[in-house]
Design goal:
Blueprint: H1 8-19, H2 24-36, E1 44-48, H3 54-61, E2 66-71, H4 74-78, E3 86-90, E4 103-108, H5 118-128, E5 129-140, H6 142-145, E6 154-155, E7 161-163, E8 173-179, E9 181-188, H7 191-200, E10 203-209, H8 215-220, E11 233-240
Parallel strand pairs: 1-2, 1-4, 2-3, 4-5
Antiparallel strand pairs: 5-11, 6-7, 8-9, 10-11
Length: 251
């Protein structure tokens, strides 16, 4: 299990980046994530890959009764603001143990692409969600992670963007890239895999979003206009069936 955020170099780079408040998270992913969330009043929330706890605090502000935040990084959790209604657990999401039907909603921001066994994770999540409960998550878009080289935009001799390379799309699996440090491992999955695994585990897809930047982002970070050429993220909102799912045996 990869723990990037406890790497001193990576953590300092990421923390400094987020503190600018001029990022893809601020202007693309987070606005879309918040829009997809259902009414949170009185709900019990599980936040997988909670990081600094910003989304956990947002859920409490919107009326959630309790949030459990899970993260593999001790450094991230040490920087998370405490709150009497938020419980932080230092644990990989692949290993966390939760009770059956414990949560009304499971949320996760940009963490599932670090998980090797997506099918197992979704099977476990489906067990933790109450009937008619929700799963809302974001992940890097399949077109971002498809190409084996992971070198980004194809540019001309003047460094102007020509196009984004899409290749190796059907070859699911790990991709290594440089992001602050060498050897960052993420996992590419086809769109059909992201959706079909949900369906196979009794989760009905309600909405899929491939968001672009909000207006403030375009004003502060004009390069976000490139999201019209290819999306960075995909977000999925799914709801658990009311009747108990008779699919694969869960762990």
């Amino acid at each position: 299990m990869q723990n990037l955020y406890d790497n001193e170099t990576f953590f300092n780079m990421y923390k400094k980046l987020r503190e600018t408040r001029v990022t893809h998270n601020d202007f693309i992913e987070q606005p879309a994530m918040k829009r997809l969330l259902p009414e949170l009043k009185g709900l019990k929330v599980l936040d997988l890959g909670c990081g600094f706890g910003e989304m956990a605090h947002y859920c409490i502000e919107k009326g959630a009764a309790q949030v459990t935040g899970i993260d593999i990084s001790e450094k991230m959790l040490s920087a998370a603001r405490p709150h009497p209604q938020i419980r932080y657990l230092h644990c990989p999401m692949e290993e966390v143990e939760c009770n059956r039907h414990e949560f009304d909603i499971v949320i996760s921001s940009l963490a599932f692409h670090y998980i090797k066994d997506y099918e197992l994770l979704i099977r476990r999540i489906a067990n933790w969600i109450k009937p008619r409960g929700y799963l809302v998550f974001s992940t890097e878009h399949p077109v971002i992670l498809a190409h084996q080289s992971q070198k980004g935009w194809i540019r001309d001799s003047d460094s102007s963007i020509l196009h984004w390379p899409i290749d190796n799309y059907g070859e699911e699996g790990s991709r290594a890239q440089f992001w602050g440090i060498d050897g960052v491992i993420k996992y590419h999955r086809k769109l059909s895999t992201l959706i079909n695994v949900l369906i196979q585990n009794g989760l009905t897809v309600q909405e899929v979003d491939e968001p672009e930047s909000i207006a403030e982002g375009l004003a502060k970070k004009p390069t976000l206009l490139n999201e019209k050429r290819r999306p960075s993220f995909i977000l999925i909102k799914a709801r658990k069936q009311e009747e108990e799912w008779g699919g694969p045996e869960r762990t």
